[in-house]
Design goal:
With 276 residues, this protein is mostly helical. It has 9 helices and 2 strands.
C-alpha cells in the first residue's frame, strides 16, 4: 500500500452538493438578517416583527446543521474532525477572555487564520461549531445564537476564499489577512445588529425598527442604532484582530500549515497489486 499526496492540503474540498447547500443557506441567511429591509411596510411579516427573529432562528439552526452534514459527507475524515474539535475548543475558550472589554475578542483572529489555511468548507463548519460551543460555555444561548453561528461561519469561510492560498506568503499575506480581519470584524458586528434590532419596540426609541416605516427611514434608524450601540465595540474587535494577526499570525500560520501537512488530509490511499 502506498500513499500518494494530491496537490493542496485542505481537509474539505467543496463538491457540487456542498456548494449548493452553502449557496442556499447563504440566501436564506440574507433573508433572515435583512428581512426588515426586504419586506414592504404593508407586508404581514412586518406585523410580526417580534416573532420573525424566533422563526428565522429555528430555521437557521436546521440549515446550518444540513450544511455541516453535507460538507461532512464531502470528506470530513477523522483527522479533519480532530482538528475541527481542537480549533473549535480553542476558539470557544478564547471568546470569554475579552468579554465586556471594548471588543477585545481574540477568537476572531484565530478564525481568520484557520479559514485561510484550511479552506472555505472547513471554515464554515469551524466558525459555526466554535460559536455554538462558546455559547454553551458562556451561557449565551438564545434566539441570537443561530444568527451568530451563521455569521461566524461566513466570517471564517470568507478567509478561506481569499486569493493566493498556496502562493501568497510573508508580509503580503499578513497584510491581506489583516485587511480582511478588520473589514470582516466590522461587518460581523453590523450584521449581528440586524438580528437584535427588530426586537426593539418602535415606541421605545427613535432608532428602533418601525415595521410601518419605509425602507429609507428604517435604514437611517439602523445606521443610527449601529453608531449609538455597537460601533465602539466593533472597532475594538477590528483593532484586536489586526494586532493579533500581525503579531501572532506568522507563528500560528506556520503551526496550522505544519499540522495540516502532517495530518495529510488529502492523501489518497491506494493499494498496489503485489508482484510475484
Amino acid at each position: 500500500m502506498t500513499r500518494r499526496p494530491r496537490p493542496g492540503s485542505r481537509p474539505v474540498l467543496l463538491g457540487p452538493r456542498s456548494t449548493t447547500a452553502l449557496v442556499l443557506v447563504g440566501a436564506v441567511g440574507v433573508v433572515a438578517f435583512g428581512w426588515p429591509f426586504l419586506a414592504p411596510p404593508t407586508s404581514q411579516l412586518g406585523a410580526h416583527a417580534q416573532d420573525a427573529p424566533w422563526l428565522f432562528a429555528g430555521l437557521l439552526v436546521l440549515l446550518v446543521a444540513v450544511v455541516a452534514a453535507t460538507i461532512s459527507e464531502s470528506g470530513l475524515g477523522p483527522k479533519a474532525v480532530a482538528m475541527l474539535g481542537v480549533l473549535a475548543a480553542t476558539g470557544a475558550a478564547l471568546r470569554p477572555i475579552g468579554a465586556g472589554t471594548a471588543g477585545v475578542e481574540p477568537m476572531f483572529f484565530l478564525m481568520v487564520l484557520s479559514g485561510r489555511v484550511l479552506g472555505p468548507g472547513f471554515g464554515f463548519v469551524l466558525g459555526s461549531v466554535t460559536m455554538f460551543a462558546s455559547a454553551l460555555l458562556t451561557g449565551g444561548v438564545g434566539p441570537w445564537m443561530p444568527f451568530q453561528m451563521l455569521a461566524m461561519g461566513w466570517f471564517t469561510m470568507g478567509a478561506g476564499l481569499l486569493p493566493g492560498p498556496d502562493r501568497l506568503r510573508g508580509r503580503a499575506e499578513l497584510a491581506l489577512l489583516s485587511a480582511y480581519g478588520c473589514l470582516a470584524s466590522l461587518a460581523y458586528g453590523t450584521v449581528m445588529n440586524l438580528a437584535g434590532w427588530p426586537f426593539m419596540s418602535a415606541l421605545a426609541s427613535g432608532i428602533a425598527f418601525d415595521p410601518h416605516a419605509a425602507v429609507p427611514t428604517n435604514l437611517a434608524r439602523f445606521l443610527a442604532y449601529c453608531l449609538a450601540t455597537s460601533l465602539g465595540w466593533d472597532l475594538g474587535r477590528a483593532v484586536c484582530t489586526v494586532v493579533l494577526t500581525l503579531t501572532l499570525g506568522p507563528a500560528v500560520l506556520r503551526a496550522l500549515r505544519r499540522a495540516t501537512r502532517r495530518a495529510a488530509f488529502e492523501t489518497a490511499v491506494t493499494f498496489d497489486t503485489p508482484t510475484r
